[in-house]
Amino acid sequence: MSSKTAGADPIELLETAFRSAMGAALGDEYAETDPIIKSSQNPQFGDYQANFAMGLAKRLGRKPRDLAQEVVDALDLSAVAEPAEVAGPGFINIRLKPGALGHLLDAMDQEALGVQPDPDPHSVAIDLCGVNVAKQMHVGHLRSTIIGDAIARIYERRGRKVFRENHLGDWGLPIAMVIDQLRRAETDLDRLTLPDLDRAYRDAQLSARADVRGLARAMEPPVAGPHRRAELEEQNAGAHEAMENAKRTLVKLQQGDPSIREDWEKLIRVTMDAVYESYELLNVRLGPANNRGESFFRDRLPDVIDAFVREGVAVEDEGALVVRFEDRDRPLLIRKSDGGFLYATTDLAAVRFRVHDLGATRVIYVVDARQRDHFRDIFDAAKKIGWDRTADGAAAELVHIPFGSVLGEDKRPLKTRSGENVTLRSLLVQAIERGEKEVISRAEDPAAPTHGAPRSELQRIGQAVGIGAVKYADLSNDLVRDYVFNFDRMIAFEGRTGPYLQYAHARICSIFARAEIDPESLRDRAVLPDEPEEKTLALMLLKYGGVVDDVARSLEPHRLCTYLYELADAYSSFYQKCPVLKADEASVRDSRLRLSDLTRRVLQDGLDLLGIEAPQRM
RNA sequence: GCACGUGUAGCUCAAUUGGAUAGAGCAUCGGCCUUCGAAGCCGAGGGUUGCAGGUUCGAGUCCUGCCACGUGUGCCA
Predict the structure, then answer these.
(1) CA distances from A488 to A141, A421, A497, A521 (A)
(2) What is the pLDDT of residue A4?
(3) So where are chain A's domains?
(4) Which of residues 529-568 of A touch strand B (CB under 7 A)?
(5) What is this structure's pTM?
(6) Among A79, A263, A496, A507, which residue's Cβ finds the most Cβ atoms within 10 Å?
C-alpha cells in the first residue's frame, strides 16, 4: 500500500500482508506466491478468505492445515482484522474490524470510488454497432451497440483512450444492388423514407440473390419436378442479370461517377440520420466521428493483398487467394478468383489500422456469435503476418465477443407478426412509451415525490426508465447466450430490473432532498458500520473497484449488473432496518448518511458505465 | 459429415473463472405501510446442474464418450 491513492479494496491490503507472512513463514521465495484472497460467499466464513494453502501444500507435499496455520502465525492483521482462522481443508478466514471498515470507506470516498486506473497507456479499439447503410437498424443491432458502448465506458472510466469503431456496411455490391433497385423503381432519393429503403433492400436481395443452392439441389437426385426446375432457372437468369447490373454500378461508384456517387451519399444521409436518432434514444455515445466503415478502407485493400502475397502468408488456390491454417481445413479467402475483394479483406485492413494507426493493444469486436469462425480466421491471419503488434512494439490482443441472438417468445429470432425484422426504432419507442406510462401513473399518487412534476420531466424520466429496463435486461445476461426478449418481464419494474436500481438511487436522492443536506458537508464525519445490514452494505461498496477491473478484463458486463443489483439489494435491506434521518443519535445518522451517499454515487457511476441514466426521482 | 456454441428450480437467469451447504428474480404461499419512496422489505416451499465415466483434498466449472437444441461451413456481408 505504497501509492498515494491507497486502494479502497481490502483485497489488495490483505494480499500484501499475506505475501509478507508467507515469505516469513515459508521462505522468501514464497513472498511472490498469490495468496488467492477472495471475499467470502457466506458470512459464517468471515468477510474474506485466503485459499492458497490447499494448492501450495499439494506442491510441497505437506498438510494444508499445517501450512495455513504457519502462515497465520506469521500474519499481522491486527490493524484491520480479527485474528485469522484456519477452517475446513485449509481455508483461512478473515473478519474485518468495524473500525477498519470505516477507514476503508473513507479511503474510497473520492471521485474514483475505488476504481483504479488501467496501467496500459495504449488505446483500445472497439468494433460495435456495424450498421448497414442500405437498410434500417433492427433488433440485431441492439446488442452490439449497447454492449460495445458499455465496454467503451468501462475502459474510459479506467482511463484508457477508446476508439469506438462503427464499421459501417457502406460499400460494395449490396449497396450497388440497392442503388440499382432504387433507380429501377424510379424512387425520388430526396424523399426517400426508411420503409422505401427497406423495401428496396428486400427487392434487391430477392431479384439478385440467386437461388443457386436451390438450383443445385434441384439438379441432384432426386431431381425436382420440371416445373420447379424451370422456375429456379428463370429466377437464376434474372438474378444473373440483376447481379451483372449491380456489378457495373459498383464499378461506376468506385470510379467516382458523379451521379451514382450522389445517390450513394443521399442513401447514407437518410439511413444515418435515423441511426443518430436511435443513438440519442438509446443514450449511447456514438456519432459521425465514429464512422469508419468499408468505404474508409476501400483504398487500402490492394495493399493488404500485396502484403499477404509479399510475406508469403497467402497462396493462390483455384484462382482465389487464400490463407491456410495448420489446425483446420477451412482456409480464409481474401481475394476472389475474379480479383474482387471480400469482407475478410476489409476486416484485415481494419485490424491493421486499429493496431498500427490507432495504437490499440486491445481490439474488441462486439459482433454476434455467428461470426465466430470468421473472426478466428481473421485474427489468426493477422497474427501470421504480424499485425498484432503496435508501432512501439506492444502486443495487441484481438478479441471477439460472440454475443447471442435476441429471440422472440417462440425461441426463434425475433420477428414481427408479419415475419419482418423488428426495427430498432419501434422497439425503443415502445420501451419509452411504457416507461412514460408507468412514471406518469405513479406520479398521480399525491404522496409520490414526482407528484405535480411537469409532464415534460415525467416524460424524460419515463424515457430513462424504459430504455434503462431494456439495457439492463440485455446486459445482465451472460453475453454468449441467446436471450428471449420479453417486454413485460423487463419492464415489470419488479425484482431484478433496471428500474429497481434506478429506484434505489432515487430513494437515496430523496433522503438528501428531504433533509436538505449536502453530502459534501458530511465528509469529516465518521462512518461506523455497526448493524449487520450496515456491514453488508459497507463490504459491498468496497468491492466496486475490483468489479470494474474484473469486467474490463473479462469483458462480461453482466458481472457489473449483478454487482449493482446486489448493492441496491443490500441498500434496500439496510434502508428497511436502519433509520437514517430518524436515527436516535446524530453520529449514527451521519454515518448512515455517508453510507447512503456512497451507495448513491456507486449506483450512479455503475449505471453510467452501463449507459443507464439515474434520475433523481421517478 | 465436420467445426463451434449452449443444456442449472415450473419460467428467465447467476454461481467470484477449480473452493466450503448450487444462488437470485418471476410465478405460488405467509407476514410487513398512522415513522425517511411498498418500483420496497422479511420468510416458506421448489434441484440427480442433459446422461455415463474420469482427473483430485475438492467439479455446475477441467478431460473423454454419448444425447438434445442452435449456429457456421471456398469465392455473399
Answers:
(1) 21, 20, 11, 42
(2) 35
(3) 10-96, 139-290+354-403, 469-609
(4) 550, 554, 556, 558-559, 562, 565
(5) 0.94
(6) A263
